[in-house]
Structure formats: structure tokens, C-alpha cells
Design goal:
Layout: H1 17-20, E1 29-33, H2 36-45, E2 48-56, E3 59-68, E4 71-77, H3 82-96, E5 100-109, H4 112-115, E6 119-128, E7 141-143, H5 147-156, E8 161-169, H6 177-185, E9 188-192, H7 195-205, E10 208-218, H8 229-234, H9 237-248
Parallel strand pairs: 1-4, 1-5, 5-10, 6-8, 8-9
Antiparallel strand pairs: 2-3, 3-4, 5-9, 6-7, 6-10
Helix pairs in contact: 3-7
């Protein structure tokens, strides 16, 4: 069965060294975004230098080291989807040596009265994707270890937030009425596409992950509503929140 894909041994037939050369240790902390608009806005605002790349047949994405208030931080634009985002973490970490990653993105709301106007801090992710089953033993949900610490940081920063389970899926066009209702009954308050896989990869490779979301489209109404999706994807405030989190780590 596909969910029995986890093997605990650390060594694989090949590692990122086959494609990227020897490991490098450049910085301890990183921030990733899924938004090309946020990515380019940040590069326009802060001094930066290229320190690596994520390469594939689709093209090359550059990994940068920013200087923010005199402090270095790795910054890159992640691919979308659990598998590709997880591979990005592995290859980025190989080239930079980071051990802390802040990841933010958008999500669909499954409980709009709870998520509206608030950041979402996931506590568990439903594993409706394939990547996590290669990096963690099979289970329905994966714990998000740093959710409690992140909630404490949001509390100290006086930022509005809600905590709860989220649903990670590789198949957004199969978010059916039945599936949505089942996840809601299990306590999921949002749906997104990366967290379960990225968290499993981070656990396996000893990286501290701090993940928060902003809901845009709404899936718990009578009809689907995507009015807030663009703002949830591209609003620059999420990067500024990530910088504040960075200061607390």
C-alpha cells in the first residue's frame, strides 16, 4: 500500500550532493513564500545575494540571503504542492545549512466564523497527499510540533490568530462536499496543499518548522467564494509577520 512507504533508514541511493555538490552552511534561519509578488517585493526592499538555487527541467529558482536589520536570513520562493515544496526544503537546506524555517501561505477556510480576520496556526495536518508517507510512519494526521510555541509568539506580538487542524491535499479539484464535511467534522478549520509533506520532511531532517496561514477562499458556505484568495496569496503583511517571528527564535 502507498501509505506503507516509510522506511526509517536515513541513507538513500543518492542525496542532493549528486546534483548540488558538497553541503554548505550559510545561515541558520530561512523564510519561504509561495507568492511571486511577495518574493519580488522583498528583493526590491532588502539587500540580498544569491547563495544557491533550486533547479529542475522547469527552470531555476534562486535562493537568496537577505540582510534584514543587520541580520542574515535565507529567502526563497517555494514550489506549490506537498511533494515539490518538500523537495525544495531538502535542497535549500543542503545549500544553506538552516535549521529553522518559517513558511507562510494561503488556505481555504472550512470554518469562516473562526478564521476570518485571523492568522491560522495549524496544530495537525490531515495527510491527504503522498510526500509525508515517505518521511513519517502512516497515520491520518501529522502533529505540527511548534504550533504551541508559534501561538505564544503571536500572543506576545498581539496578532489575531486561531489554532486548529488543517487538511493538506494534493487534489484541490477533488475537495468535494463529502470530503469537506468529513474534514470539518474532524475539526479541520482550513485546507491547503503543502504542510503535511513539508512538516514530515522537516521532522526527518531535523529542521524546526514554523507555519502559519491566511484564509482566502471560503468552502463552508452554500457556494464556493474565492473573493479573498488574491489578497491571502499576495499580501506582504505575512512576510513582515515572519520577520517578527524570526526575531523571537
Amino acid at each position: 500500500m502507498i501509505t506503507q512507504s516509510f522506511h526509517p533508514e536515513k541513507e538513500s541511493l543518492f542525496s542532493p550532493e549528486a546534483f548540488l555538490g558538497k553541503r554548505h552552511y550559510v545561515c541558520e534561519k530561512a523564510i519561504a513564500t509561495f507568492s511571486h509578488e511577495i518574493f519580488h517585493a522583498v528583493l526590491e526592499q532588502y539587500p540580498h545575494e544569491a547563495v544557491g538555487h533550486i533547479n529542475s527541467a522547469n527552470g531555476k529558482r534562486i535562493i537568496y540571503r537577505l540582510t534584514v536589520n543587520g541580520q542574515p536570513v535565507i529567502f526563497y520562493m517555494s514550489a506549490i504542492g506537498s511533494c515539490l515544496a518538500g523537495i525544495d526544503v531538502i535542497e535549500m537546506q543542503w545549500q544553506t545549512g538552516i535549521d529553522k524555517l518559517i513558511l507562510f501561505g494561503s488556505a481555504g477556510s472550512l470554518k469562516s466564523d473562526a478564521t476570518q480576520g485571523k492568522y491560522v496556526i495549524p496544530t495537525q495536518a490531515y495527510r491527504d497527499e503522498g510526500m509525508s508517507y515517505h518521511y513519517a510512519p502512516p497515520s491520518d494526521y501529522l502533529d505540527i510540533p511548534n504550533s504551541t510555541r508559534l501561538a505564544a509568539i503571536f500572543e506576545a506580538l498581539h496578532l489575531p490568530y486561531v489554532t486548529g487542524r488543517v487538511w493538506t491535499t494534493d487534489a484541490p479539484y477533488r475537495e468535494t462536499y463529502t470530503a469537506v464535511e468529513k474534514r470539518k467534522q474532524e475539526g479541520c478549520i482550513a485546507v491547503e496543499m503543502e504542510l503535511a509533506g513539508v512538516q514530515a520532511v522537516c521532522n526527518f531532517h531535523g529542521i524546526e518548522l514554523y507555519d502559519f496561514l491566511v484564509t482566502g477562499d471560503i468552502l463552508d458556505g452554500d457556494t464556493y467564494n474565492s473573493d479573498g484568495l488574491a489578497a491571502a496569496n499576495h499580501s506582504l503583511d505575512k512576510f513582515h509577520v515572519a520577520l517578527k517571528i524570526l526575531e523571537q527564535l
